[in-house]
């Protein structure tokens, strides 16, 4: 029966949004309770649906025609339902946490309205059954992210960051839109014939129809479509080269970072690739017509981003920025999973990637909330001014440590005990290795394993610098209120134990596309026996990273001031984030677009077309002419007579010339 | 209830005359609101009775006028005209409400606004070329006064430039009308200015050269109104100098006349023109050029209102592009773009007006952080800007999506070019918001107050409409699609597009 | 032979004499009623013409005068113009001790024009021309204490008599070639022996005639007198000259030139096109830089002459009908406009007695507030002159330009199309200087308080407004009239 | 004497007249020049009339002579009036109206 109310998963938060927006001021704590209740409702419904469909391997499909042969609808399959539960659950916890975190903010109603609108949009992304609705909701989450990053709009940095976030993701969105355009054209060529009339009951952009039509789409076109989609994913999920906005997005409240820029929205890109995985999988796996296989590109971009972002994570001093880069790098892992595992085990890659996505959602949200709790207590983002907080903030410290362990993927191999990250991430790394064996191309694996090392280094650096040692600044600090710490604990539990669900999770998700399209998925590849080294290595690098950080930042065994100095070019490169902001914003954004193109256009418009042509050439000439001619009117009558006679003569002459006559 | 349309046109006319005669501004604005309100009600009645499944003229009326020239007062609406009639009747009352506080020569002001309504309604409903042309010209005069009486510092220049520019265009168009008229006359032996009749007989013209000449003359007449690059330079000046109400009407209704011309006149002729392929390419180039050029120039502007003006140019580019693509859904998308841009641009110009009024400047650099003191405005303005940059869920997205997606069938290259524009479109909107509205409050502005309630009310209504038509386009989109399909039957017949 | 059809001319002639005689007998103060008398006379003739026979056809005095639709239309134009001018003059010349002569001369001038309108013989044509010209010479100089009025009269006189001399010379040549002064006979002669018709002597004769008529039409290069005279003479007289006697040239040209040209089948198209284009461009361009409104109107009426003379370029029935329509419209618009200027002059003088050049642009500031009716009328006249619908000016231009376009299509001649486009650009350009005055009237603040507009002026001006808009709103009968008139020429 | 003699003479008179109008400054002289022009035309008329062998031309000539007289009268009247206010009939000085 829950599935009949599927629509309310989205509608409840929407209602909450409207109510909070308009009468939030009058309600308790800026009407925080409305969204909390609404999202709780969404979670309950999602969970109920899960309980309904899980036993009978069912999926929920509802759709209503919209306009021009397109529809809005609901599609809840395994992929969607797990995502639904995660989003609504994390969002719920973060909302509760926010009651405490935002307690002193005057603009609470706006905050809660926007977050609940965001939740609605995100849920709509997850359960939409067609690419158009997906795109629309995708844009809406982008909008909410824009609004929430710029929540403290009076801070210029925040306003700028919000703009940057929106614009950079917009680049991705345009690619995505282009992909949709291309897809639409192909689809309607196939089912509607030039998009004149769409046969009833058919909806051009519905996933079901799309997957059914995959074989009919020209492979090259298909590759373009998938690549363009992936472009959208790059934008949203902050993959290289569109990663720059995500660290800046930390200008927003920490809760926002946790909700949008760690757990949910940024994973939408991964979700998009997962959603349309059959199309990616169907792209020709050889270099056809000069177009490389989409999955390969996904793998490389993901892998590279994982490493690339991790390097920057090493040197950041803003606690949230470190986490931001870690998010980017983890998203890279997810992409990598889709790419490599996709090549190895086909559709099962979705399961692998999604599992990391969800466990990451838990521990990264946890990390952010801990960071928030620290910032809330200390009042700064700079870890150089923190230290020795553990004594004061036990709960935060512990939970954050758990999260760090999960992120580093610490666990005990072979007996399969470990944190969530241990299962999800190591699985990805192993698949990358299998991919290497299969394709004889170990580069992705290299990316993954090095990134894993760096990950554990920067995260423990963060933890040690924050919680151990002696306080490096005179800031009073205290443990956060219960309304904030309890969500931490709950998330910590998930970070610890979620991992054990991995087998069931994989099985369930593997059914996904077969449930959707009715075709059997690729047969279970009899898991290649891995050499123990391969299984062990990820954990080893994780531990190694821990030890390195411990040595450097806790025991202070070696002095970093050599490395950490503006003389060191490598350090500078990293600290300036590979000069990405300079290149992106200043050179491309301001210099090229604004100063060169736009200004020259302005020049052409105002100076040439307007001044020169309209004013000078046309008007002024006429005026001057008039002034000149009127001077002929001397006022002396004889001249008039002369001109009259002259004209007469001229006319006669003219005609004489024209027809000589006798 | 036969003469609904002529009633709808007559009432604002009468209202205008009464308004001119009123003594106090209270009377004036009340009369204006009443007249436009009644006209709105009538148009709603027509709209509700409109059958969007048939493409023929509905609520047609015809009265003889100049027999010897074959001119007769023919009125009627179809899927092309109806939405614009509705739009005009929505925009004008809201403009009156927005300008509720006008003090300078109120009776003239509101009277002129009503006259504009008369003019545009006439253009959108008249089916006789002669009458069409007359209304087309009449529209200029009130706008000239709105600019030159209530305008800004360079109002003289702007007003006269606007007038002469568009007047030349319409005169050139008149030449083409002459030719069509003469052609039809020689064929049938009896003079007639009936629009469809003239258009039908275009195909009979022998020389392809003449055909193209006529086509281009008409096209010129329309795209100058739209306006399309490179005939657009009158628009920024006119907008910058015009009073808010003037800009609103100019952008929301007068520009739409050009687009209406494309659908009403240009498309039926296109398949029969001398060299359709070339002309289609020409239109596509003009469309895309306007999109990109408008976008980049908007990016270059310092003056908020001027930026909005250029954004109008770029948005109207979609209309040309969609029309040129000759796919039913692209054409109806273009029509929908007209409708939605009509609503959206109102909000933008109203925001500019409110800011100008309370902060005393529109220069983006001189503003900053006004959100602090103008929360209501910020909310509505942000909504408007987002709608304008094509945020899904707002009417603008549906239009642009339809245009882009469907134009790709026939004009892939141009669509790809147009897509580039989108990022920068978002760019200048957000840039302006960030610099002007967000950030730290610029203390030099002194204490500024939020917009008045009537202003906020009319903007709010517009936003609601934008969202409504963004979520549920069908009420207007269906009738557009019906007519678009009917229009393009001939295109398909002639096999112009491949 | 029934002379009823000439009743208007006869009536007005007698009336003129009566007015003179009454003027001798009356004492100064009661002379004001003479205006009403002449107005009554003019009105009576208008009614009479409308009453019987717009479409009559008859000829008198050994076929030297003819009555046909063409003549009737132009008579109507002349009568209407004179009527509104007389009505306005009632105020303008109130308590002037010479107003009896004024009205007599005005009536005689009207008669002269009417004679020209129906002249069927070169002699009659010449006599009519001279009658009208001489009366108007005097009228132009009627303010005999005012140097500029006298100067205007003098220039008008000298150039006028020069060109009538030219015309006479031309006529003598024509007579010499054809041995007759009767126009139909002349046409016949040309038709029957084309050799002679295309002889250079004949062309010279034609050009002389063109000069003669062109002087009245104020066609470049025979226009030089017009601006000075219009500016200098009393506004009411300028109104008569611009609106009335100007059309005399056109009707004469229609009667003689068009037929002759058609007959001698030599194409002066190009020549006339060039003349027309130069004329309209000249008028518009120079009008832009004028501050004296009367002078601006003078130049604009030169431009209008250019438009109307497009009718000679393509001598089709439609084009001539268009020419006639525009002439009719122009009579109303220009006449009304000059009267409005006269009213402004009155206003300025009532502000301060000895104000110089009362028609300066500055005096129009805020006219919309000071004299609402006048301002609105002027607004209408200007838009009509610029050819904005719905107005007489629009209808005229519409038909005229239409006919040229058609000719261009028919002859597939691109240069004709260019001619139209230039004409169109011109009428767009003209908006510039009209709009400037409109701006002064409605945008700028007034420099004085509201005045009471004298009834006679208002009546006269409103008559013109009603005519202008009326023709615009219901052109049907006028178009018919024009077409019938054009039919007479049988082109 | 052939017709052309007459035409030649009248042409010469015409030329003199127009030359005078262009060059002379005094209003009176200009009036006289105009008379010359008119009379050259009259001469034409009469000559043509006798050679065409019908009287129309002579009638026309008589008409025009009468008219010319009237015209001259008016011209002098205007000049006199002008002299009263401006104390000159030198046309070069009479140019308040221009441009």
Description:
The complex is a heterotetramer of chains A (662), B (498), C (491) and D (99). Chain A has 25 helices and four strands. Chain A has 662 residues and is mostly helical. In chain A, the strands form two sheets. In chain A, strands 1-2 form a two-stranded antiparallel sheet. Chain A has a two-stranded antiparallel sheet with strand order 3-4. The longest helix of chain A is centred in the C-terminal third of the chain and has 51 residues, at 580-630. Chain C has 491 residues and is mostly helical. A two-stranded antiparallel sheet of chain C has the order 1-2. In chain C, a hairpin with a 4-residue loop joins strand 1 (58-60) and strand 2. In chain C, helix 3 runs antiparallel to helix 20 (455-473) and helix 12 packs antiparallel against helix 13 (293-308). Chain D has 99 residues and is mostly helical. Chain D has one domain (3-93): Helix Hairpins (Orthogonal Bundle). Chain D has three helices and no strands. Classes of the chains: A mainly alpha (662), B mainly alpha (498), C mainly alpha (491), D mainly alpha (99). Chains in contact: A-B, A-C, A-D, B-C, C-D. The B-C interface holds B 65-69, 133-134, 137-138, 140-141, 144-145, 148-149, 156, 159-160, 163-164, 167-168, 171-172, 174-175, 178-179, 181-183, 207, 210 and C 383, 388-390, 394, 398-399, 401-402, 405-406, 409, 412, 417, 420-421, 424-425, 427-429, 431-432, 435-436, 439, 442-443, 474-476, 479-480, 483.
